[in-house]
Amino acid sequence: MTLSQQFLDKEEKKNDNVYLNSSYAQLRVDIFAYLKEGPLSHYSARQVELITEDLLRVIDVNINETS
Question: Can you say whether residue 40 is alpha, beta or left, with left for phi > 0 and alpha for psi between -120 and 50 degrees?
Answer without folding.
Answer: alpha
